[in-house]
Amino acid sequence: MTPRAAIIAGFAAILALVIATDRFARRTGSGVRPLPATLTAALRSPVVRVLIFGFWLWLGWHFLAR
């Protein structure tokens, strides 16, 4: 497995974990907050907004720049 394939597989695993957690959070009686509620709470802070924007730029640079 090439390093690029391993990194893509790692990001795919993280995405699958996020989706599974969100589905678990939407069940009745779950104590976990769904992803949109978590992002809404996190994006109230300007520092978190900058960090998420930086991560988004980094992700785009690594997957789209050739």
Name the shape in a single word. Answer: flat
Helix/strand order: HHH
Rg calc = 15 Å
In what range is the share of β-strand residues? under 5%
User: Distance between termini?
Assistant: 20 Å
Number of domains: 1
User: Main beta sheet: strand number and arrangement?
Assistant: none
Determine the fraction of residues in helical runs and give it as a percent range: over 70%
Low-confidence stretches: none
Mean pLDDT: 89
- Secondary-structure content class: mainly alpha
Number of helices: 3
Count of strand segments: 0
Transmembrane segments: 44-64
Pfam family, one: DUF6186
Keywords: Membrane, Transmembrane, Transmembrane helix
InterPro entries: DUF6186
Please provide a written account of the structure.
There is one protein chain. With about 70 residues, this protein is mainly α. The chain has one domain. It contains 3 helices and no strands. It is flat, with a radius of gyration of 15 Å. About 0% of the residues are buried. The mean pLDDT is about 90.
Spell out the key features of this protein.
mainly alpha, 3 helices, membrane, transmembrane helix, transmembrane, DUF6186
Provide a brief overview of the structure.
The chain is mainly alpha-helical and 66 residues long. It has 3 helices and no strands.
Topology of this protein?
Elements: H1 3-25, H2 35-42, H3 46-64
